[in-house]
């Protein structure tokens, strides 16, 4: 049972949504989102990645939210309000020299995303960000494909680490509510001294339901994005969490304001959400990249062809 | 826990989807759907309403699936296959003289929809259809607004009746998984001698999750529609049930075939699914009619205006 203030919403519209439009959000868009999330009472806004463009080839065309620069951020967010700011980094793509001490940055939280094999390296980064004063999370991606003994090893390292929050990430949108219940139980058992977070995708129309399931089982940090904007099938919609989370005190109206002003027009130009190729990769527990490529092809609505490509042996050979 | 064959899928694409396009489905469409559902192993196909056009004024422009005629049905479905056929009737809109004995009809199941106040009248119809040889269900609509003592009275009548299956219907798409769990528990407790069914809507992106919750708690008949087609926010998608229901033996490929050939082009012409006005009526536990009218107006994307209309006192006076 959720008790008041035991959950925090982390809105990932800019960071995860940037995977849809190559982070081509205007400063006006991000400022308005920040205003609306503040008014709604949303706890965190993830305003982008803090990776280094030097470490990511071919990224010159990306918008500024992919490589957050602290000076740029100061200009964009002129007045810090109640909603805390978060940035994500990837193993091997972040230059630690770019990370200022927290008191010199607008950022409050740095989240380290990694695959299970890189947890040790991720925890070194976590230590460094922690020492510079930030709240930290560790987001283990692609959990649906992780073996139990790998997870056990990771739990040992994590429980000894300084990380504040450990995320259950359903990268492929393939997990069912019962899977979430079981994962939360496992994480809870092995990480008694850590808070938990959940980041769900909507391939099987379960983004919101899985996030609720996590919340009902004691997960505190709940990722979402406005109108569900995020890679492929997108995320748990912020508006649904804000409207329906029990014992919470969020305001829906400002989120609807953002949706009307920016998200509905944006959805006309960019695509995300429940579409059959994403449903198929979710069902198969695969990365959505094949589905994203297919949705960019002239055959994008040939549901059967895509299904056969992924399930019939040698259909393409 | 679901055991094999304890659940049946009832595909409502034609009946509930007809509320979107005024039952303007071609015979080709319905024949192809029947073929695909058979190949998929879906248990029932609800092929329309069996109301009487004499009892429904202003319905002249509706397609034939709104007023199923047995001769027409024999022509349309030339060869009966494994998937059983179902029709729905409404209290006060059905002429019982239209209902042939089952052996002279292609229909196997007749479902009676009613509000809680009409349960007694509905059960009289059920008795009649039962005596003519049909399987029967009672679908109590708008459950979210029913008071406990009303439900208790209804349970008494229902448990003494001949009805085979009693449905939990989330007409407004306003129920959460925990509500479903509680409702199933209540229904189970009072209706020990009846099978249960679930019909969910997708206003809060919970159509599939709520149907799974019902199934996990022992509900046997699970309503859905292909690509989620149904009034307003639509239904639990058949493709997701077919793909993800545990211990089941359905085939997804034929459902994808139907989606590719008919549903994706249809969705380009007709609107259903998760849209903000439907989310708002779902959240407020209201009938979606105001949202449907709003989506037909030039202001259809003015999310805030719609929210204020429904929540701010006297905004329209």
From TrEMBL, chains A, B:
Superkingdom assignment: Bacteria
Alphabetized UniProt keyword annotations: Manganese
Manganese listed as a keyword: yes
InterPro entries, per database record: 2-IPM_HCS-like, Aldolase_TIM, PYR_CT
Gene3D superfamilies: Aldolase class I
Pfam families in the cross-refs: HMGL-like (PF00682)
Annotated TM spans: none
Domain Pyruvate carboxyltransferase: 7-260
CDD domains: DRE_TIM_HOA_like (cd07944)
Protein name as annotated: Aldolase catalytic domain-containing protein
């Amino acid at each position: 049972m959720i008790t008041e203030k035991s959950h925090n919403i982390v809105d990932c519209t800019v960071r995860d949504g940037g995977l849809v439009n190559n982070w081509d959000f205007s400063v006006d868009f991000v400022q308005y989102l920040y205003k609306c999330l503040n008014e709604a009472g949303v706890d965190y806004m993830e305003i982008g990645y803090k990776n280094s463009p030097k470490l990511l080839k071919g990224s010159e065309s990306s918008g500024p939210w992919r490589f957050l620069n602290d000076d740029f951020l100061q200009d964009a967010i002129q007045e810090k309000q109640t909603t805390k700011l978060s940035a994500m980094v990837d193993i091997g793509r972040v230059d630690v020299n770019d990370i200022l001490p927290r008191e010199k940055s607008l950022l409050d939280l740095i989240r380290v995303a990694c695959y299970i094999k890189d947890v040790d390296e991720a925890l070194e980064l976590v230590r460094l960000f922690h020492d510079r004063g930030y709240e930290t999370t560790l987001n283990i991606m692609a959990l649906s494909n992780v073996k139990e003994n790998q997870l056990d090893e990771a739990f040992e390292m994590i429980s000894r680490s300084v990380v504040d929050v450990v995320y259950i990430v359903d990268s492929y949108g393939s997990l069912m509510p019962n899977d979430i219940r079981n994962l939360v139980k496992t994480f809870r058992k092995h990480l008694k001294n850590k808070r938990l977070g959940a980041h769900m995708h909507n391939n099987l129309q379960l983004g919101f339901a899985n996030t609720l399931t996590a919340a009902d089982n004691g997960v505190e940090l709940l990722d979402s994005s406005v109108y569900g904007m995020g890679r492929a099938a997108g995320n748990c919609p912020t508006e649904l969490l804000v409207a329906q989370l029990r014992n919470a005190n969020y305001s829906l109206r400002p989120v609807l304001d953002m949706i009307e002003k920016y998200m509905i027009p944006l959805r006309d130009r960019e695509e995300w959400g429940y579409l059959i190729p994403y449903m198929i990769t979710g069902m198969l527990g695969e990365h959505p990249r094949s589905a994203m490529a297919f949705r960019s092809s002239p055959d994008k609505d040939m549901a059967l062809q895509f299904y056969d490509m992924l399930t019939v042996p040698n259909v393409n050979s």
